[in-house]
Amino acid sequence: NPLEVVKTRMQLQGELQAPGSYRRHYRSVFHAFITIGKVDGLAALQKGLAPALIYQFLMNGIRLGTYGLAESGGYLHTAEGSRSPARSAAAGALAGALGAYLGSPIYMVKTHLQAQAASEIAVGHQYKHQGMFQALTQIGQKHGLVGLWRGSLGSLPRVIIGSSTQLCTFSSTKDFITQWEVFPSQSWKVALAAAMVSGIVVVLAMTPFDMASTRLYNQPTDAGGKGLMYRGILDALLQTARTEGIFGMYKGIGASYFRLGPHTILSLFFWDQLRSLYYKYTK
Asked: How far is CA 32 from the centre of its chain?
C-alpha cells in the first residue's frame, strides 16, 4: 500500500504542467517515501489501506475466478487443443473489466484518500475525506450512483489492457517454458518464471492508462458531479502528452513496477499453485 500512495502522488505531480515549470515534491520513489514520512507522518504511507484491500479482494477475486472458469471450461483452447493467445487475452480483458467496474467506487475513494496531503507537498486536487465510509456516503448523497461510478468507464481500458496482458503473457510464457522444457513441467519454477515475465510486460503496457485513470478519478467536479478537467481517458492521455510529453504518460512507473512486479509474481504464482492442488485432489 505505501507504494500505491507514492505511485498516486507521482502520477498527479505536475498535472498538465510543462516539465520544469513546477516544483517537484517527489523526485523518486525513495525520495517520495522519505518526504511523505517526514511531512505527513509514517501513518500517511498507509492512507487508503481499507479501500485498497477491499478493491483487491473484489477485483482479483472476480477477475481470476472468471478467467479460471473460462480456462477450466476449455474456452481458451483451439479445436486442436493448443492455447489461443487471442482467446486468453479476450477472457482476461472481460474478466478484468467486470471486476474493475464493480469495484470502481472503492478505487475512486482509495485514490482520493491517497492523494490527500499536507499543503506543502500536496499534488492534484485535494478532497477532504475523513475515511472510506464517509467518502462513499458523501459522494452518494451528493451525486448519487452516477457519482459513485464516475470514472469507471475511463478505468476500464487500464484494467482491460493490464488484465489481458498479464493473464495472456502468463499463460503463453508457461506454455513456452513447458514446451521447451526449460524446467520440469510440474515444477513451481515454471509458474514463477512466467509470472516474472508477466510482471514486466504488464507494467509497460498499463502505466499510461493507470496514470490517466488516477487523474480521472481525482479531478475536481462541478455541482452535477461532472469532471472539470477531462472528458474521458482519451482526453486525459492527449492532454498529458501535449503538456507533459511522452514521459508524462509514464509518471509513477518506478512505483508501479515495485508494486505490480511483486504483486503479479506472487498473485499469479500462488493462484497457479492453488489451482494445481485443486485439480489434483478433485479429479
From this structure: 19
Q: Residue 109: give its domain's CATH number.
A: 1.50.40.10
DSSP 18: -
* Residue entry with cell 500536496: 122
| pLDDT single digits (tens) 169-198 | 888 888 888 887 777 767 777 777 888 888
Contact 232, 154 (CB under 8 A): yes
Residues facing 227 on adjacent strands: 221
Q: C-alpha distances in angstroms, 216 versus 45, 171, 220?
A: 22, 31, 9
State percent of the chain over pLDDT 90: 50
In sequence order, which residues have a C-beta less than 8 Å from that of residue 169 and are 6 or more positions away?
A: 194, 197, 198, 201, 202
Q: What is the DSSP letter of 168?
A: H
The boundaries of the domain holding residue 47 are 2-282
pTM higher than the cut 0.90:
no
Whole-number Cα distances in Å, 116 to 26, 46, 153, 228: 14, 12, 24, 19
pLDDT, average across residues 109-125: 96
Tally of domains in the chain: 1
**What DSSP letter does each residue of 62-88 carry, written as one string?**
HHHHHHHHHHHTTTTB-TTS-B-HHHH
Confidence of residue 283 (pLDDT cuts 50, 70, 90): low
- Measured distance CA(33)–CA(13) in Å, rounded: 15
Q: Kindly state the cell numbers that stand for 234.
A: 482519451
